[in-house]
Amino acid sequence: MGIEALPQLIGMLEDEDAVIREATTSAIVRIGPEAVEPLIEALQEDVWSVREQAASALGKLKDPRGVEPLVKALKDRDGAVRTAAVWALERVGDSRAVPGLVEALGDSLVREDVARVLKKIGDARAVEALIDGLSGNNWMVRRHAAEALGKIGDPRGLDSLIGALQDEDWLVRRNAAESLARLGDKRAVDPLLPLLEDENEMVQETVEGALSSLGWKPSEQT
Question: Domain end: 92, 110, 125, which one?
């Protein structure tokens, strides 16, 4: 099946049956790079399912031409399309998407997925937004933000990560401890010490490793 079949295939993305839409998307992806421009155009179609599957296909093709159109799709009026765009940008993994993804952190529907993608890309332009996310009320965003700040390794994240050691969610605390170890700033030692007795054993183990990497030894405890 070649490029000549694309118009018909894109039309089939309007089918009410999700299985048919998914199969059609797979067929479009198999056409390869020639499908990219028609898929970009399909992001403007009136039918939401066409836009959703076009975004999905662009992600699977991982073509850099799709980055800017997918970033625009983060503002689509339909939530399913916005979600598909986030997942597609994760597949492409292009840092050009970072400003648009940072803005999308304000979208309650997709912010958890967006935080995960920003963590994966690891671009310093996301630091301030991730710091904000670390103090927000969404525990999943906090988990991703705590991990992302360590991956990025920007010292601006230090104070927020220290604060996250008190988070009610154990995985946020664990991720924060791990990220503080990555930052390598010895100012994190004293705030880490109380977590040696954290109620969660995985947090305790991570803190032990973090303290060791920061040069702390048990004999130094006062």
Answer: 92
Domain of 81?
1-92
| 33, 97: one domain | no
Is the separation of the CB atoms in 82 and 73 below 8 Å?
yes
Residues 140, 70: one domain? Answer: no
Question: How many structural domains compose the chain?
Answer: 2
Q: What is the pTM of this model?
A: 0.88
**Token representation of residue 196:** 């040696």
DSSP result, 119-163: HHH--GGGHHHHHHHHTSS-HHHHHHHHHHHHHHT-GGGHHHHHH
| Predicted local confidence at residue 194, as pLDDT | 97
Q: Contact 173/167 with Cβ under 8 angstroms? A: yes
Half-sphere exposure of 60 toward its Cβ, with a 13 Å CA cutoff? 18
Evaluate whether residue 31 is within a structural domain: yes
Give the per-residue pLDDT at 222.
46
The dihedral built from the CA positions of residue 200, 206, 207 and 208, taken in this order, carries a sign that is positive
Task: Report how many helices (DSSP H) and strands (DSSP E) the chain contains, helices first.
Answer: 14, 0
User: Percentage helix, strand, coil, to 5, in the chain?
Assistant: 75, 0, 25
Average pLDDT of the residues of the chain: 94
